[in-house]
């Protein structure tokens, strides 16, 4: 049923300064028809793509916490928001203005509070809808022998090698040639894991709006291949400042290298899951979760049955007392509890929880699309690696080895074996 245009209530620009003129924004706390909302946004914004009008290259839609917008410099916002709900507002941006937005956030909040960026207005409007409730499911731990055998296989030196190789690219920015090269390098590395294994394949996930590709290694399930378990972390780094050096050794060469080592260990152990496992190195996380946002939305659209997602982003800096921390917001409480039990049952590590307070990494894209997702993290929020997003995010800040990251690889193996059974 289509709603009446009366529901597209007038929106008066309160709290967002700048040159934007007053416009109309649909109220997403009530029922909103997405097509109508796009039409309304198009006629209000002028520059927006209307029906039959193509999107321009470089156009991007960003969803932000409204509270954050109020605190930010109004000059960052050249136009009125095109839509909003109680918590979030959607703005149209030019791609080249995004770095300025990140910088502005960094200056205002001491660290970026995070935002989602989308190629299309339609995708951005999805952010305003409440995520669908997750169906209840049972998590069981009954693969002790297999877990113990396979969780012993990840090797610290392999992870350190992976981190060194990825951090050697000057930066892995999603729009930089070196960021593209880093993705291609990972594709070649992962292709080696697929050699002589007909049930393993590697493919890039190409993104229409930017050149960096996500990388997907698929281990086809032997019994229920249509059910999918996802493990992964972002391969990109920030663009870098000054001479653009951004090694991103901890954020997030460490998570990408751990993802690779989990795949290597499982395959080296001759493991063939019952369900399909997809290992993903996400592009463009630092640009607003764009790689994972596109992939998770595509999976949802295609009806892919993702049983669970584990995000590995920053694994190698031991800043806190406990070993592994789980992000409690924008994640699945049931799956988080399952991960805690995996540690208690199989691994000699301690765990805790932390809160980001916003969709701080790729797990949020999966949560948003209705999949159970978790984010395992290196420390408490306050004690995370202080060198990230700078030229100083190098392996030596983590002791020059991957001892901490190894714990996450072992957890990832246990997670895969107990969930993809
Ligand atoms: N790895 C960080 C997320 C992070 C940093 C979590 C510190 C906990 C503590 C991630 O790569 C990142 O920088 N995310 C952005 C948000 C994103 C949506 C652009 C952030 O946190 O500012
Ligand atoms: Zn990160």
Descriptive labels:
18% strand, alpha/beta, globular, 35% helix, Aminopeptidase, binds zinc ion, disordered N terminus, 14 strands, eight-stranded mixed β-sheet, 421 residues, four-stranded antiparallel β-sheet
What does this protein look like?
This protein is of the alpha/beta class. The chain folds into 2 domains: 9-126, no CATH class; 144-419, Zn peptidases (Aminopeptidase). The chain is 35% helix and 18% strand. It contains 12 helices and 14 strands. It has helices at 34-45, 66-71, 95-109, 121-126, 144-150, 156-167, 177-194, 249-268, 290-302, 333-346, 363-368, 403-419; strands at 10-11, 23-24, 59-65, 83-84, 88-94, 116-118, 200-205, 214-219, 224-234, 275-282, 305-312, 324-327, 351-354, 373-377. An 8-stranded mixed beta sheet has the order 7-8-10-9-11-14-12-13, with helices on both faces. A 4-stranded antiparallel beta sheet has the order 4-5-3-6. Zinc ion binds next to helix 8.
Tally of helical segments: 12
CATH class of the largest domain: Alpha Beta
Q: By helix and strand content, what is the structural category?
A: alpha/beta
Q: What is the radius of gyration?
A: 21 Å
Number of strands: 14
Instruction: Provide the domain count.
Output: 2
Mean pLDDT: 88
Question: What is the 3D shape?
Answer: globular
Termini separation comes to: 42 Å
Strand content of the residues, in percent? 15-25%
The molecules bound to the chains, other than polymers, are: ligand BES, zinc ion
Name the helicity range: 25-40%
Biggest beta sheet summary: 8 strands, mixed
CATH topology label of the largest domain: Aminopeptidase
Detail the poorly predicted runs.
1-24, 46-54
């Amino acid at each position: 049923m289509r709603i009446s245009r009366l529901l597209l209530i007038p929106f008066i620009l309160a709290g967002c300064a700048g040159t934007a003129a007053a416009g109309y924004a649909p109220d997403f706390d009530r029922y909103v028809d997405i097509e109508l909302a796009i039409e309304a946004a198009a006629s209000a914004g002028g520059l927006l793509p209307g029906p039959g009008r193509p999107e321009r290259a470089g156009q991007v839609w960003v969803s932000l916490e409204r509270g954050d917008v109020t605190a930010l410099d109004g000059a960052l916002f050249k136009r009125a928001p095109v839509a909003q709900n109680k918590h979030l507002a959607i703005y149209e941006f030019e791609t080249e203005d995004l770095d300025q937005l990140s910088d502005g956030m960094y200056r205002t909040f001491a660290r970026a509070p995070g935002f989602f960026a989308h190629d299309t207005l339609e995708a951005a409007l999805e952010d305003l809808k409440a995520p669908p409730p997750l169906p209840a499911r049972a998590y069981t731990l009954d693969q002790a022998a297999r877990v113990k055998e396979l969780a012993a296989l990840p090797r610290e030196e392999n992870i350190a090698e992976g981190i060194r190789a990825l951090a050697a690219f000057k930066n892995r920015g999603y729009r930089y040639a070196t960021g593209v090269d880093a993705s291609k390098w990972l594709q070649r590395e992962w292709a080696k894991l697929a050699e002589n294994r007909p049930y393993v394949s590697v493919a890039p996930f190409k993104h229409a709006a930017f050149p960096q590709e996500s990388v997907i290694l698929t281990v086809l399930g032997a019994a229920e291949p249509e059910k999918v378990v996802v493990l992964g972390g972002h391969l990109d780094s920030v663009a870098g400042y000054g001479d653009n050096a951004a090694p991103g050794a901890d954020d997030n060469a460490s998570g990408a290298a751990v993802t690779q080592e989990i795949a290597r260990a499982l395959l080296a152990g001759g493991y063939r899951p019952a369900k399909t496992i997809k290992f993903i190195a996400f592009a463009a996380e630092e640009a607003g979760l764009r790689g994972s946002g596109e992939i998770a939305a595509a999976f949802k659209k295609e009806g892919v049955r993702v049983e669970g997602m584990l995000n590995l982003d920053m694994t190698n800096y031991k800043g806190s007392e406990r070993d592994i921390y789980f992000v409690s917001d924008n994640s699945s409480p049931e799956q988080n509890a399952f991960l805690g039990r995996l540690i208690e049952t199989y691994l000699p590590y301690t765990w805790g929880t932390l809160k980001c307070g916003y969709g701080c990494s790729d797990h949020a894209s999966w949560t948003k699309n209705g999949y159970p997702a978790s984010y395992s993290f290196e420390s408490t929020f306050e004690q995370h690696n202080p060198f990230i997003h700078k030229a100083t995010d190098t392996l030596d800040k983590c002791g020059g080895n991957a001892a901490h990251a190894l714990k996450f690889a072992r957890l990832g193996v246990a997670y895969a074996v107990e969930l993809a059974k």
